[in-house]
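Translate sequence into structure tokens.
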Amino acid sequence: MADAFVTGANDRDNLCLDMTTKTTTHNKTEKSHSTYKDGLYTTDNGKEKSSTKRSPEEVLAMVTFISDILQDASSQLEDMKISSDGSDTIYEFTLPGETASYYFSQIIEQASMNTKELKNVTGSVDSLKMTCRVNKKGMLTEQSASASGEVSKSIFTIPVTLTETTSFKTP
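Result follows.
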């Protein structure tokens, strides 16, 4: 689960991000805190802290990843559902086979920026289920991706279930 607070998204020179991410694998939860300000992306996972220069476009891509998948793979979406939860609208869809594996690998690659154990990991899945929550003002408030499959690193392959969720605080 990640909580992201983004300011200045329409103002490239003043973009700021404050995001906390929790990743759970085999009953082990890792938490990392990431910030972006003045071109510097900093991540602290409690064990190590790193800082790298990043463009505002790279940072926005991290928090809009699932929305981008929806656009890029729109012709391959399956099992589309739209439902309501209070005043929010929930959009659910699934990506099949090779397309799901492609995006699953991208999710792992993105997660590896904050989790050293995921570096050089590859993965494959049968499908990738995604959900987006939009509030009554039409603003994206939450996005998540879930998949079950296998990940490999070096000579080891293990089954895994991955869910990545980002919640957006709205003004």
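Note: The first helix runs from residue 56 to 63.
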